[in-house]
């Protein structure tokens, strides 16, 4: 069964495509889930980095945006002027990262806070203290480690960070975590339970110590729809807008839920069970989890796997009939966030034709 897109004619490959109908379906489904669950949706924009998608997320009721860097926030949050804000404009951003602010970053955060509501992440008293010069302009959320063993304090460590915020008159809005250990076969439900448990524990400790804790923020794409109402106040999934080969392999999404693919040409057929595409790691991205069965998939060839990846070569293994030399195929990257950050533009496809070209506006905004 053909489940890939009807590719536009005349493409120059490799080309990164967004399928408009699938994107809209993914956006509306997550917005509906959040609404029905009475959980605020603050989608993570590091996946798409596009003003056009950010606006649509806001139109569908997002509370604001999550970002990984101040640079992403500067680009995706609208500049304030005399006009009233509309529903599509970003007025609230959360830098979901344990910032360590130097003088330059403080200046940029201050300018950003003049335009929109800004919340930043922190997981140490020392990092919080560096925000003192602009503390009255910001809010902070304390990061909790829920099992990923990356950044974040244990629930027992929240009061030290909260006390530092109190000393500099920095508003504490709550706690957040990232259940990144949901990225494993069968791991989503356990990760969702972990995040709910540690956020609840951290919130209880803060309240018992005399602090307010209005927000409990979490949610990765594999675990977002497993969040139980009442456990979190907001979720921050990012990959759901496009999905990717990882989400397909995890069973979180079907192939026809994938809204971003790379059109790539078969440039070599050195063997009957092997062919080479012109989209390598510089287009697809190099990410491959230990459990993944390949470096990517082909939308219309479910048994094919990208088994080798070089800068400009993708080697695909497929037993039996496959695409012919010169044929253009749709490749699903393993990790869509990396693939988006590698290109300057996304070609929006609707009805088999390219209808728009969206700049990846926050591309390489890594600080």
Could you please describe the fold and organization of this structure?
The protein has helices at 20-37, 51-59, 70-76, 103-113, 125-129, 158-167, 188-208, 221-224, 245-250, 281-284, 336-341; strands at residues 15-19, 40-41, 65-67, 92-98, 117-122, 139-143, 171-176, 215-218, 234-235, 260-271, 274-277, 296-298, 305-309, 314-317, 328-333, 345-350, 353-359. The chain is of the alpha/beta class. The chain folds into 2 domains: 21-240, Alpha-Beta Barrel (TIM Barrel); 246-359, Lyase, Ornithine Decarboxylase, Chain A, domain 1, CATH 2.40.37.20. Strands 1, 10, 11, 12, 13, 14, 15, 16 and 17 form a 9-stranded mixed β-sheet that branches. The chain has an 8-stranded parallel β-sheet with strand order 2-9-8-7-6-5-4-3.
Short overview:
Helix content is 28%, strand content 24%. It has 367 residues and is α/β, with parallel strands linked by helices.
Q: How far from one another are the termini?
A: 44 Å
User: How much beta, percentage-wise?
Assistant: 15-25%
Number of domains: 2
Give the rounded overall mean pLDDT. 95
What Rg is obtained from the alpha carbons, in whole angstroms? 21 Å
Q: Look up the CATH topology of the largest domain.
A: TIM Barrel
Helical element count?
A: 11
| The CATH superfamily title of the largest domain | Alanine racemase
Number of beta strands: 17
Order of helices and strands: EHEHEHEHEHEHEHEHEHEEHEEEEHEE
pLDDT < 50 runs, ≥5 residues = none
Overall, the morphology is: elongated
The biggest beta sheet reads: 9 strands, mixed
CATH architecture of the largest domain: Alpha-Beta Barrel
The assigned structural class equals alpha/beta
Main CATH class of the largest domain:
Alpha Beta
């Amino acid at each position: 069964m053909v489940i890939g897109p009807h590719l536009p004619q005349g493409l120059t490959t490799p080309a990164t495509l967004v399928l408009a109908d699938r994107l809209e379906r993914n956006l509306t489904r997550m917005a509906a889930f959040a609404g029905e669950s009475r959980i605020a949706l603050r989608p993570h924009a590091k996946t798409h980095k596009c003003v056009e998608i950010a606006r649509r997320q806001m139109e569908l009721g997002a509370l604001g945006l999550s970002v990984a860097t101040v640079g992403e926030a500067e680009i995706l949050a609208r500049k304030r002027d005399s006009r009233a804000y509309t529903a599509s404009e970003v007025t609230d951003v959360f830098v979901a990262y344990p910032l360590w602010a130097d003088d330059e970053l403080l200046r940029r955060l201050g300018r950003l806070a003049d335009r929109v509501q800004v919340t930043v992440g922190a997981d140490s008293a020392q990092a919080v203290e560096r925000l003192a010069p602009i503390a009255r302009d910001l809010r902070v959320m304390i990061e909790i480690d829920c099992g990923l063993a990356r950044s974040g304090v244990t629930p027992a460590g929240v009061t030290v960070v909260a006390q530092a915020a109190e000393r500099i008159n920095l508003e504490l809005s709550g706690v957040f975590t990232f259940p990144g250990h949901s990225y494993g076969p069968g791991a989503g439900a356990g990760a969702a339970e972990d995040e709910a448990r540690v956020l609840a524990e951290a919130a209880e400790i803060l309240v018992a110590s005399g602090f307010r804790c209005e927000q409990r923020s979490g949610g990765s794409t594999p675990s977002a729809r497993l969040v139980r109402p009442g456990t979190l106040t907001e979720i921050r999934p990012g990959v759901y807008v496009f999905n990717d080969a990882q989400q397909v392999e995890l069973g979180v999404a079907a192939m026809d839920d994938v809204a971003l693919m790379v059109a790539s040409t078969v440039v070599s057929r050195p063997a009957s069970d092997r062919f080479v595409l012109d989209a390598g790691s510089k287009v697809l991205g190099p990410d491959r989890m230990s459990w993944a069965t390949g470096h990517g998939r082909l939308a219309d060839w479910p048994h094919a796997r990208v088994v080798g990846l070089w800068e400009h070569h993708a080697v695909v293994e497929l037993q039996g009939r496959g695409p012919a030399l010169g044929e253009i195929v749709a490749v699903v990257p393993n990790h869509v966030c990396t693939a988006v950050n590698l290109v300057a533009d996304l070609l929006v496809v609707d009805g088999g034709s390219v209808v728009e070209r969206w700049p990846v506006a926050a591309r390489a905004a890594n600080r």
